[in-house]
Design a protein that fits this description.
globular, 24% helix, Thiol Ester Dehydrase, Chain A, alpha+beta
Length: 159
């Protein structure tokens, strides 16, 4: 039984204890914990690759909700994933617990680049997404909401 199996499954801002328990490298401030289950397995007894993307999606939506003070209404500007990539470093098995970290590394005029790490006794995989903000009614690209830009800049310490 590893040291992180007794930690809560619903963390957002990372504590030093949580980071140490999962072997997280410096520079991450946000994360959620998850545990794999039966429905997450592939034919080889490993966590299916799509599950990693589901975990990153959950981290992305929680991060954005935290930065915006709630999820945008359907009529407001909100994020849409434009590109997504993930590199797998090693496999996970059933009942493994992971910490999924997320951070915004770049803010553009209408988009942001968010990166992810999946950790279980060190890095298991990493990825990134480009999220474009669009008008909820028209679907057209819009400028990043100012409250999002300010919150991310403050939280991540971006210049």
């Amino acid at each position: 039984m590893s040291s992180h199996q007794s930690l809560p499954l619903d963390a957002n801002e990372l504590s030093p204890e949580l980071s140490r328990a999962f072997g997280v490298e410096e520079g991450w401030r946000f994360g959620i914990t998850r545990a794999s289950g039966w429905s997450d397995m592939d034919a080889y007894g490993h966590v299916n690759n799509l599950i990693f993307l589901d975990w990153c999606q959950e981290a992305r939506t929680r991060y954005i909700r935290m930065m915006m003070g709630g999820w945008p209404a359907p009529t407001e500007a909100g994020p849409v994933v434009r590109t997504l990539d993930f590199t797998f470093s090693r496999s996970l098995k059933m009942y493994d617990r992971v910490l999924v970290t997320a951070r915004v590394e770049k803010l553009g005029a209408t988009s942001c680049v968010q990166t992810y790490g999946v950790w279980n006794d060190g890095l298991v995989g990493k990825g990134s997404a480009v999220c474009v903000f669009v008008d909820g009614g028209s679907g057209e690209k819009v400028s990043l909401p100012e409250r999002f830009r300010k919150a991310v800049t403050r939280f991540e310490g971006l210049a």
